[in-house]
C-alpha cells in the first residue's frame, strides 16, 4: 500500500477557481472542462436563475406545449385554457414517470403513460384510478415552475424562490418589444444545433463581434461595431463607421416617429437578471438580414410601419439573445448538455398572416443565421479543444470585448454568491 504524500496540496475546488479569477482575462481551463464546474453551473446558474426556454408563439393555442431538458430537470411549458402560459415539472405526482416525451406537441389533457393519471393543462389532477375515498386530488397537482411571458418571450426559473428583479427588467424592456407583437407572431421554423463546446463558450462567442470578419453573410447587413467607441475605430473600419453613424441617425428619427423609447440599456453584470438592449441600424437598405440589408418577408411584424426599422438586439443572462427586425424576429437559447457540449436552439418568427412561399421563403429567411451559427459552431469547437490543451493559459480581453467580460463577471458573481 502506498503511503500518502506528506504535505500534498489539497484538491482544487470550484470555489478556489472562482476566488482567483482575474478580471479582464478569459477563464481558466477547468471552467470549460471540469465535471465539478459543470455540475455547479447546473445547480447555481440554470437551477436558480431565469432562463429563456421558448417563444410564446411555440405554444399558440390552448393545449400546445414544449418540453425543455436542463440537466436532470425536464419542464413542460403549456398554454392553458385561459390562454395563459404555464410551466410544470415534467413528473407525474404518482410514482414519478415522465409525462410528455416529445419536444413539442398538443394535448387536451396531460396523461401519464404509466398509470393514466390525468392532469388538466392548468396542472390540476383530474383522474387517478383506484384511489381510496379519502384521496384528495387537489393535493396532487403538477408542481409548478416559475414562468414569465415577457412580450412573447418565455422564461422559467426552477428555484423555489426566483430572483425578484425580473419584473423590474421587464418594465424597461417591454415598451421596446411592444411594436413587434411577438405574442401574436407565428413560428416559421426552428432548429437545434449541437455544439462541441461548453455552454459558456457559446455565450462568450455571441457576446462579441471581434471575430465578425468570419461572418461574411451577416456583415453585409449587420454593422460589427456595437461594442466600439469612436477611439476604437481603426483606419480600416473608418468607412464602415461613417456609414454606421449615418444609418444610426436615420434610425433614431424612425424610432422617434413611432414614439418608441430612445434610450438603450446595459445592465449585464450589475443585477441578477442581467440584460442589454440596443436598437441598432442595419447597413444598406436597413431592413433585414438579407444581402445589403434587404427585406426577407413582405409582411411587417406587429404594428411596425417602416421596413427600415433596424435591429432591436436584446441580450439576457445567462443563456439567450434576440434580434427583432421589421419583418421577422430570431430568438436564440443555449442549454448545457455535458461538460464539453451544449445545444443552440434558433427560432424564426414572422407575422401570423405571412405565408411561406408567398411572403417569404425559408431559404431567404434563415440563410444568414444558419451560416453564422455554423461558422460559430466551428469557432466554439476549436476553442473548446484549445481550452482542454495543457498549453492553454487565460488571455486578456480586447477593448471591444466588454460584453464578454460582463458575461463572465455576471457568471462568476453568481457562483461566488451561492458559496457565500
TrEMBL record:
Pfam families: Rieske, Ring_hydroxyl_A. The keyword Electron transport does not apply. Residues 50-156 form the Rieske domain. InterPro entries: ARHD_Rieske_2Fe_2S (IPR015881), Rieske_2Fe-2S (IPR017941), Rieske_2Fe-2S_sf (IPR036922), Ring_hydroxy_dOase_asu_C_dom (IPR015879), Rng_hydr_dOase-A (IPR001663). It comes from Kineococcus aurantiacus. Its cofactor is Fe cation. SUPFAM superfamilies: Bet v1-like (SSF55961), ISP domain (SSF50022). It comes from the Bacteria. This is Rieske 2Fe-2S family protein. GO terms for molecular function: 2 iron, 2 sulfur cluster binding; iron ion binding; monooxygenase activity; oxidoreductase activity, acting on paired donors, with incorporation or reduction of molecular oxygen. Keywords: 2Fe-2S, Iron, Iron-sulfur, Metal-binding, NAD, Oxidoreductase.
